[in-house]
């Protein structure tokens, strides 16, 4: 490639779309070219290639558990996670997802590392890519009746059991589940180390956020559209002024105290 007869913009575009061997050749030409423009494009492209490689490695490592299980002859591996466990209002939502082998979902990571717009886009991609997915919603009334921990475990279990494709292995974020009809593994911080759990965390989070946006229209004074039911300053201030609603978890200490003094 004659870099002297090419615009810097065209050189940059060609490098990023080329094979590794060709990339290295062009980069070497740019490195040896002492013109300021060539040096700037060399540094920019070198940095872009480094970031791309880093992201490829991160994504590959995200599915290391799944690859290991597939090598052990498991066929359908489900990841399961929940959203809304620590909220003062609204439901608990669990999602289970089975992704195909070698699934490619650009930007997939733990839902907490993404903004709302990124989660929405990934949510749609995950649903289109998944072999099977299931969302289960458990209301605040169920949480108050049965307790948060019991409801949490039940939600994860039901989501797994109601997948249209029955998994032969489940990766569970943070919890060990008993009496499952498949093998399973409790994975600490699973949404950081398992692609299947990360996908489930996004599906659960987006589904729950959509519910809370709808509930915001019914109870606008509580600001659910911004905090989604978590115990933010704005939410606590609204509770102290307006009291509790039908969607608040009255078994939670802070909500219970307000409910008893300002029903």
Explained architecture:
There is one protein chain. The protein is α/β, with parallel strands linked by helices. It folds into 3 domains: 3-61, no CATH class; 64-207, Nucleotidyltransferase, domain 5 (2-Layer Sandwich), CATH 3.30.420; 214-261, no CATH class. Helices cover 54% and strands 12% of the residues. The chain has a 5-stranded mixed beta sheet with strand order 3-2-1-4-5. Helix 1 packs parallel to helix 3 and helix 6 (140-146) crosses helix 7. It is flat. The model has no long low-confidence stretch (mean pLDDT 92).
Gist of the model:
This protein is an alpha/beta fold. The chain has helices at 8-16, 20-32, 36-62, 64-71, 116-129, 140-146, 148-161, 190-193, 195-218, 224-227, 233-242, 253-261; strands spanning 77-83, 92-98, 132-138, 169-173, 183-187. It has 3 domains: 3-61, no CATH class; 64-207, Nucleotidyltransferase, domain 5 (2-Layer Sandwich), CATH 3.30.420; 214-261, no CATH class.
Q: What's the helix-strand series?
A: HHHHEEHEHHEEHHHHH
In the sheet with the most strands, the strands line up as 3-2-1-4-5
Mean pLDDT: 92
Roughly how much helix do the residues carry, as a percent range? 40-55%
Category by helix and strand content: alpha/beta
Measure the end-to-end span: 76 Å
What is the domain total for the residues?
3
Report the portion of residues in β strands. 5-15%
- Going by CATH, the architecture of the largest domain would be 2-Layer Sandwich
Query: What is the CATH topology descriptor of the largest domain?
Result: Nucleotidyltransferase, domain 5
Q: Identify the CATH class of the largest domain.
A: Alpha Beta
Work out the helix count.
12
Give the overall shape: flat
Secondary structure tally: strands: 5
Which runs of at least 5 residues are low in confidence (pLDDT < 50)? none
What is the C-alpha radius of gyration, as a whole number of Å?
24 Å
């Amino acid at each position: 490639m004659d870099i002297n007869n090419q615009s810097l913009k065209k050189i940059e575009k060609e490098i990023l779309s080329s094979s590794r061997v060709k990339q290295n050749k062009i980069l070497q030409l740019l490195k040896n070219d002492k013109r300021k423009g060539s040096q700037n494009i060399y540094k920019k492209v070198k940095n872009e290639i480094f970031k791309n490689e880093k992201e490829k490695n991160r994504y590959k490592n995200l599915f290391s558990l799944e690859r290991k299980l597939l090598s052990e002859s498991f066929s359908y591996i489900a990841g399961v996670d929940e959203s809304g466990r620590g909220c003062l209002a609204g439901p608990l939502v669990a999602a289970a997802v089975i992704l195909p082998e070698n699934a490619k979902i650009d930007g997939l990571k733990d839902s907490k590392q993404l903004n709302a717009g990124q989660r929405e886009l990934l949510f749609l991609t995950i649903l289109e890519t998944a072999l099977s997915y299931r969302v289960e919603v458990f209301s605040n009334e169920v949480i108050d009746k049965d307790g948060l921990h019991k409801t949490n475990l039940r939600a994860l279990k039901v989501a797994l059991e109601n997948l249209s494709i029955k998994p032969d292995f489940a990766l569970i974020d943070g919890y060990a589940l008993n009496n499952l009809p498949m093998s399973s593994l409790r994975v600490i911080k699973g949404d950081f180390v398992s692609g299947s759990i990360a996908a489930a965390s996004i599906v659960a989070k987006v589904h729950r956020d959509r519910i809370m946006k709808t509930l915001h229209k019914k109870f606008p004074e509580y600001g659910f559209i911004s905090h989604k039911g978590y115990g933010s300053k704005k939410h606590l201030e609204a509770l102290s002024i307006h009291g509790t609603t039908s969607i608040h978890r009255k078994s939670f200490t802070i909500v219970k105290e307000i409910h008893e003094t300002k029903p």
